Amino acid sequence: MPLKQTVQPYPLIDADPHFSRVVRYMRPSDYVTWAGATAAGPGLLWAFEKADPTRSTKASLRSALRLTGWLGFCAGFMLAYQRSTARFWGWRENAAEVSKDQAELSARARAGQPLYGETELSPYLQGVAARNSTWSQLKLHAFPW
């Protein structure tokens, strides 16, 4: 099954990037986004508590702040992951990623290694895996797969 062709303003690096590549190629701005979302959860809860107090105990407020911190951390990671993936797809400016990808793949080719690694899956299962994961980052906010 051919890959769906999309119009992108920047060069396509990989339509189905591996998780480790997406995380390795994250920019400092992605980490700032991640940290901002992590801090936004407890910060907003604390501000809402100051604006309209629930009169809950300090222990329950502390637990709620921890929970919103964890949720903000997870949401921030997913947001940073989506931003990094959009650069792989060519939907955002990706000049640094293109040069890094070219250097990485050139080094693998010089070493005689396959460009995208080896697999033990049959061609049918490779197709199933590709159909399940290609474009999956678009719904990461709804179904974090």
UniProtKB/TrEMBL annotation:
Residues 8-93 form the NADH-ubiquinone oxidoreductase 21kDa subunit N-terminal domain. Residues 104-145 form the NADH-ubiquinone oxidoreductase 21kDa subunit C-terminal fungi domain. The chain crosses the membrane at residues 31-48, 63-81. The keyword Membrane applies. The keyword Protease does not apply. It comes from the Eukaryota. It holds the Pfam family NADH_u_ox_C. Keywords: Membrane, Transmembrane, Transmembrane helix. This is Uncharacterized protein. It comes from Kwoniella heveanensis BCC8398.
